[in-house]
# Entry
Amino acid sequence: LDLTPLQQRFARAGKTLDQDKLKNLKLIRQEQGQYFPTWGLMVLLGALPHVVIKCARFKGTDMSLFLDRKEYDGDLFSQLEQAEAFIKNHLHLRGEIKGLQRTDTYELPEAALREALINAVIHRDYTNQGRDIKVGIYDDIVNIVSPGGFPNTLTAADLSEGRSEIRNRVIARIFKELGYIEQWGSGLQRIKASCLERGLEEPLIREQGDFVDVVLYRHPIQEAAPDTA
# Structure
């Protein structure tokens, strides 16, 4: 296995990834004097065929017509960056002049997009090899679907209040080590808060069968016109 993508991420964070670190993080295991990759390392490197993110931009508000679609493989960090770039490429930019400078912001908060993608990757059920993460962009929403429902002990209300139960501990530990997540259970709260601060409808986070479905609404909440009668 080529560890370069993971080593580069650690180097950017000012950390080393040597053999001892690999063992401590449970990325390798030793058997009869030889080292073998763990399932977590295989997933992080994208070394399994089903570890992909599929992205599509549809025309209108249903899946009847594709405008663009891409499939991203490789290490999980590269997949995240490419999926985020794909989404941004299909979002509107809003320009604002502050002093002598123009500031462009996406119609959806970047923090919400990033957290939704990271949550999908960390909490995905990787044991089912016939499914993958899907990102759908429509005129009205961005939809991120991840295989694997909520843990049996948690409900959507529990998750929204910050309770968490980690499905993939090795993967989550690496993301925390590299600064992609700050504290357990805070991601969904940040998704909702950042959208509400922007004046958008509260995101919908639900369990659909054996999937977790995150819906980010693209258009601001329309205020009712004042009654002038």
Summary: Residues 76-89 form the longest helix (14 residues). The first strand starts at residue 28 and ends at 31. The chain has a mean pLDDT of 87. Strands lie at 28-31, 34-37, 53-58, 66-72, 93-98, 101-106, 133-137, 141-147, 204-208, 211-217.
